[in-house]
Amino acid sequence: MLTDLTFKSLGIVNYHETLQAMKHHIKQEKFKNEIWLLEHPPIFTLGTAADKSHIINSKNIPIVHSDRGGEVTYHGPGQLVIYFLLDIKKLNFSPKKLVLTIQNFIKELLIQISIESYFIEGAPGVYVDDKKIASIGLRISKGKSYHGISINFDMDLKPFKLINPCGYKGLEVTQIKDLNKNISKLQLQKSVIDILKKTL
Q1: Quick check: is 166 catalytic?
Q2: CA distance 137 to 70
């Protein structure tokens, strides 16, 4: 268990600036385990394994090469992004265990709001009725993790049609508001923090 875990709610923040802030944070001598909850303005991000041809048409949405794992995804307002800045050595987590822990946390979060979800072997993320609701992309450097997961909450899903989400042609996406209209953003964030405190 992490006794020194801090949660930060950052609102809507620029992707580039957040990436630099994460890289700076994990290099701190007096490293603190933190989880950041935030949203990004519209942006397509390509992970280290990404093939740019999976962006069918970017329209006017910026594209950025990121150092997280995984393929292409979209971030935009109304999507809850959770970044895990953790000392995984201290947690005694392998990268695989970290991914599984995060997936199970999302599954539990969705159960709390009456949404049944599942995982697909070899395709990290969380799915509901053959549609993706949450995407995972992590980076581990010298025993510290950064990046994390994005959960579609109440957003414009149309930009996902401009890409092959996570490298899968025709993969559809869904969001919490289309499955449970009664949950507010504040309630969702509170549940996230409650479950993660218990999990980590």
Answers
A1: yes
A2: 6
